[in-house]
């Protein structure tokens, strides 16, 4: 029995399907997790290792190289990069894209084992490497906390209290604080007294180091119990540290007799944060990946509201980014767009097919949408930008199945047939072609959904939702649509005018007959238009992912390498004063020394650097950003000409780095710098659309080193380490342990007073062997300056220098890259050195390469299905010849609107191809069926094409108009324009080109059959 007929004769099962889709969709809507953007796994880990006193080159050679060599033995590793600074190695490991998130924990365990084994061979003085595999954690609820008038200790207690309380919230995975003031205890000897008493700084350090230590003291075991012994409490205040005793030459002195002890801020902190110009620290809250971020955010809001009465007056929490608010607003806006699209589809159907057909098809469409939500919840597919957009992308194909069945059933019933017979005929001859066309439409997106890289992971929900919705639309089209048609469609007496006798159908038939008569002219015209369109496609601007529609943008500020953090902070204060005068600025958060905590998945923070500053600026709307960016850049470049001042928009999707990047790798840093300078000169000469050309090794720094007088120093018993300790005492201070204040550990430094007035060559060095303080100039031959690289980058174990640049806001990276590519690639590269492109070019190339690896399989499946559907070759060839022509309308639409061809536009083009193939299959199948009834070829083509006019036109019209709500969405606008323009032209292709091609392919065989007929008679 035909499925459609059975759905009418056994309506209980169909009604159960309807109710399951409806109520399952309602449950699914409430159960779905919600995100702003789809999650993609950041397959990176960072290994941090300190090597105090070593130069950047030493760190690279003695720390990074052995660790990288061990890590490289892991076959799962794709790329290893490192940033080496004086005393600090930061290695970043990226896992190959073929490994998914579920495999990463085991890989991180393996990575730790490799690093731990390699660490045993590191030089003395190197700290244990710290492996951070939480590098990709996202703290989507991000606040700045201001506490004007409160002490630093109180701010730390506040931060710890807030963190403890928020960690108790259900669904919160982690809470991170940053930017808290860095305090230390400074022990500053009175130099005249300490020298007279012969108290070396080392003696003070030893005395302090054991004052607050925690060591086991054993236990006592009695007859029936065991008593634990603990050491005496250590110094728990600054005054207690002042009273510590120091043993010198058999005498005991108090520390306060020879030194001043004070508590204060570190002069050069790692990071400083301000919110709207006011000192602040940040509070980042991450939700569990299994939780709905909207629900987690609301619970955090409720917890903060409950805590507010306990928070002292003057302390305020300012939201920098609230992911749950953004997600809820974006989801609601998209649901409105979806509802508008469904409403537009139903209105168009009512206008052209009547209200009865509109109810039947519209109800099927609604059930398909809500049923898709049910399956999304079952398969844990979150409701986010991509999955909701997929529903709208699929809208044209969703409604197409129901339109074909409803159209055929309605026409048959008007001809006098019963609803059962009409359903049997309408669905019976189309259900297999529609299924094949539906699977082909799904496979058009398989290349993206099955791509293993970050872009494929980001876009996976598109493939999943389209697959679910299209298969469900086919099931409902051959079950629910016939049943609803049975209830709503009226049976005619068969005596009225023909179903296709209207003026529109007659006009189309006349045009089609003319096209068949002039078929070669039509084909030549289509070929010429298609060729011109492919040429025109080269004129369309190319872009990977579009700018985000979140009203945020960033400022990157970079002073020359070696600038201290205080100077950077002072400069950014001038920018803050300018922003405070602007009415179009809602808020601004300043980060000095490094970037912000990762508060969005697509946000990548800059590495720590005292000469770097960063601002996150929020505006009312995204329309306020471009003029504000222009004005701010003019102000920054005019007011702070000695620095690099750049603004950047937030971009959708994965990626990172500068828009334009070129890398040079080789063994000699001097040669790399020469190549970098040469590349900058070539790029400047080739294009005037490159902004802030720079290289990531930045400027070399001057390093001051004492010249060790070997003979004199060894005679005095002074080692190189003794001189280094004396210099550290005179500058940053010698670490003397930790001061425990509750759960805080505050470092203690013994250092020369800032107001001592002593220069480096006035310092005294303590001789352990002689027990004397020796002037430093007696054991050195002065000081010498040396130029060193203090940012030493490596990539896959090779020193690698990257030249980067920004581009104007009205240009795309692809356009500018095309201008400079040939000139840069023509540069002579010395033997042993290499050049490679990075930036957006590399990201888009890798995404397209990954897509290209999957597409052949998808295309093979699509071709096989089309061949199996017809059990022939000519019909599939006709259909596939239409696909290249689909670009015609796309070119006209994108060039007409000036929009770039983005990754989402590529999705639109794939969707368009699926729609075109689907319509072609149904049309060609109908021609075959009409021919089988005995009509001549030309009349069969005209008759079948006329019967498919309304479904094709309605599917195109509903899809085109259904895309209208997406024209205001920054992420999907280029895709919407691609589908709207392309589908308008594709409808002409289906209705004119497909019949003409069919005639050309089958005319000869028709003539042979006609010639053979008399002979057979």
List the helices and strands and how they pair.
Layout: H1 3-9, H2 11-31, E1 44-50, H3 56-71, E2 77-85, E3 88-95, H4 104-119, E4 130-132, E5 141-147, H5 152-167, E6 172-178, E7 183-189, H6 191-196, H7 201-209, E8 216-221, E9 226-230, H8 238-242, E10 245-248, E11 251-254, H9 255-258, E12 259-265, E13 272-275, E14 278-287, H10 293-307, E15 315-322, H11 323-353, H12 355-378, H13 385-393, H14 395-414, H15 419-428, H16 431-443, H17 446-449, H18 454-477, H19 480-488, H20 503-517, H21 519-537, E16 552-558, H22 565-580, E17 585-592, E18 612-619, H23 625-639, E19 644-649, E20 660-665, H24 669-686, E21 691-695, E22 701-708, H25 710-715, H26 720-730, E23 734-741, E24 744-750, E25 764-767, E26 772-775, E27 780-788, E28 792-795, E29 798-806, H27 813-825, E30 834-838, H28 839-870, H29 874-882, H30 887-897, H31 903-932, H32 937-947, H33 949-962, H34 973-1016
Parallel strand pairs: 7-24
Antiparallel strand pairs: 1-3, 1-4, 2-3, 2-28, 5-14, 5-15, 6-14, 7-12, 8-9, 10-11, 13-14, 13-17, 16-18, 16-19, 17-18, 20-29, 20-30, 21-29, 22-27, 23-24, 25-26, 28-29
Helix pairs in contact: 1-2, 1-15, 1-19, 2-12, 3-4, 10-11, 11-12, 11-13, 11-33, 12-14, 12-18, 12-19, 13-18, 14-15, 14-18, 14-33, 16-18, 16-28, 16-31, 20-21, 20-32, 21-30, 21-34, 24-27, 29-31, 29-34, 30-34, 31-32, 31-34, 32-34, 33-34
Organism: Halovulum marinum
GO cellular component, one term: plasma membrane
Pfam families: ACR_tran
